[in-house]
Amino acid sequence: MTEIEGKQKKIQEMQDHLHTVISNSSKLQSFLAVHQIEQQVHQWQRYVEDLESDGRAKEFDIKMKQSDEIEIILSKLESLETLGEVMVVKTNIDLNRDTSVRRKAQVESREQSNINNMTMNIETKIDLNMNKISDMICLMDERVIVVEWDGKVNLLTSNGKLVKQFPISGYAVSVTQINQNTIAITYPDKKAIKIFNMDNETVTKVITLDKACFGLSFSNNSLVVGLKSDEIRMLDLEGNTLKSIEVQSKSTLFHFVYCNDRVIYSDCVGNAVNCVDGSGNKIWQYKQDLSGPWGLCTDTYGNIIVVDCNSGRIIVISKDGQNSKVLISKEEGLKNPKCVSLKPNESSGYICYEHGKYLAKFNLSSG
């Protein structure tokens, strides 16, 4: 009906227009205008014929008969005082998020890359002018933290420029990142791990242990800490022990990775890189031509990149421990490298020198 009323309004407008044209226009203008109106009238005529043929002009009477059952239901509803209760139950879900970025395999690939095709290129060397270095990590936002043996914890830009020294007292040794704003640091002399908020620069928690603690990592919402030379312990963020793995090392457990219930750790004095399972059983040991292996990390395939400190080399060991390749030799300009860290989910990172003079930025290629 609305459609028909609209058409009627258009016809009335045409009539008014016709009277205007006839009274105010020349004969030629009147002829042209009338011819145009005749065409529109013809269109409206066809429209009316279509209405008659397709039934749009017919009148419909819609009736609804109410069922007797509806009356019975309505009468029962009137006597009800309540329709029942709505209960909301909240259940905590463990998302099992892995936010580790410290010396761990980021993504295990089913295909093992051919380490013979791997190359490492030193892009630039950045002056640090720091004291002796104990640890270094690349943060999630690509900034860098360097820990000095005298306890200073330094924050650097992604280009290696010093931003600040965090105001944390004590002799720090190792550092790992828990989330975007939080890091954890070991203090062997205090047998403690300090959890530190980088935004407001405050220590939010201190976890006290029964042994001196050195190397530190974060995996599957758990802290993984090296205790002296014979134990790697997993803790929750409250400091409760989740798992203890006994290991054999001739040197203090400074550097290791924990992934897929395996621990890979460097033994500087024993000149070895060892891989053990979650019970401490040896999976493999690599000792070929090593001289003071120190810092290590893993690439996305699980291959282990090792700093061989005394020889001044960077070596990659296949994740099964069977093969190796020298990526950077001493002749290429490295002297006493100490730590290595890849940027999260990237093939570039940094090598830090033992005496804190330089930070070398590198790119890693799988060929």
From TrEMBL:
Q: Which PROSITE patterns match?
A: NHL
Please list the residue ranges covered by the NHL repeats.
289-320
Q: Name one GO biological process term.
A: proteasome-mediated ubiquitin-dependent protein catabolic process
- What keywords does the record list, in alphabetical order? Repeat
Task: Name it.
Answer: TRIM2_3
| Source lineage | Eukaryota, Metazoa, Spiralia, Lophotrochozoa, Mollusca
Q: What PANTHER family would the database entry show?
A: E3 UBIQUITIN-PROTEIN LIGASE NHLRC1-RELATED, PROTEIN LIN-41
Does the UniProt entry include the keyword Repeat? yes
GO MF terms on file?
ubiquitin protein ligase activity; zinc ion binding
Please verify whether the record's keywords include Repeat: yes
